[in-house]
Amino acid sequence: MLSQGELFTAVSAVLCVAHAVLGVLWWARDRADRAVVARLDAADIDPYHAVATTDRDPGRDADRAGAAELLLAGLIRVKDDGQVAVTAAGAAPDMTPEHPVPAAVLTTLRGHAAPWALNWLYLDAEHRARRDAFLRAEDARWPRWATRSRDRVKPAAILVTVLFAGWCSGQLLYVRGAFSGPGGEVAAAVFVGLLMWGVFALVLGLVVLAVWPWRRDRFSAYCRSLPPHPAEAALDDEGRDRLHRAMTYSPPRTEVVEDLSWDPGAF
């Protein structure tokens, strides 16, 4: 029969072995990710997919690059206030670009009779559906990177640690004989044990969060190392300035001047 000290040592050893195994799995996956990234130079990565991959909002940079292509082709124009309008050439159905991203941007702008802001594209659900369908299809071409932000190793390490914290809480109560009393005392002991489990899990979980690294998004890092989107790179200084104003447009605020003079007769 193991003593409590020996049992604690054995369970702690199991915890260390579990973390060691998870650490090996993390290292093996990271090594495989590096090997795949090393072969990406010979791959055909769509430039719109590349710029979307590097952005926290996957669609914003793709929309900007699509608008740059439309601007270069003369299919849209940016007004002085930053709003965008479709040109006569852009209104012609046969002038729709072949690529789905600029085609989605142009289709959305055609649906607005008045000039519209590019940075409001995210409000259009139909536009997001058209654009995101292409981005999801491109993700499917790279199955390893479609789940690049999904990390199962670190959550597993946190789960093992939380279970260990629960076991420690139960053992502390067992050593103090909390489960050998009347029913009321046992219920109180269970409540205290749950509180202890929460405290231990919080402390140990924070340690695991600080020590364990998340999966490295090496595909996004590779895409960030690529040259700018060809359409954006081809814009001159004026074109880049107009595109920037279009992507950062904010409607003018209507100033309301209130008459703050005091009229004693009003009271």
Can you give a write-up of this model?
By secondary structure, the protein is mainly alpha-helical. It folds into 2 domains: 4-38 and 151-211; 47-147 and 217-247, no CATH class. Helix content is 63%, strand content 2%. It is built from 12 helices and 2 strands. It has helices spanning 4-37, 47-53, 58-72, 88-91, 100-110, 125-141, 143-146, 153-175, 183-211, 218-224, 230-234, 237-247; strands spanning 76-78, 84-86. It has a two-stranded antiparallel ribbon. Helix 2 packs antiparallel against helix 3 (58-72). The protein is elongated, with a radius of gyration of 29 Å. The model is unreliable at 255-262 (pLDDT under 50).
Mean pLDDT: 82
Please compute the radius of gyration using only Cα atoms: 29 Å
Main sheet: strand order: 1-2
Beta-strand percentage?
under 5%
Q: Give the biggest sheet.
A: 2 strands, antiparallel
Q: Please give the count of helices.
A: 12
Proportion of helical residues:
55-70%
Which spans of ≥5 residues are poorly predicted at pLDDT below 50? Answer: 255-262
Shape: elongated
Category by helix and strand content: mainly alpha
State the total count of DSSP E strands: 2
SSE sequence, one letter per element = HHHEEHHHHHHHHH
Number of discrete domains: 2
Report the span from N to C terminus: 89 Å
Layout of helices and strands:
Layout (H helix, E strand, L loop, with lengths): L3 H34 L9 H7 L4 H15 L3 E3 L5 E3 L1 H4 L8 H11 L14 H17 L1 H4 L6 H23 L7 H29 L6 H7 L5 H5 L2 H11 L20
Antiparallel strand pairs: 1-2
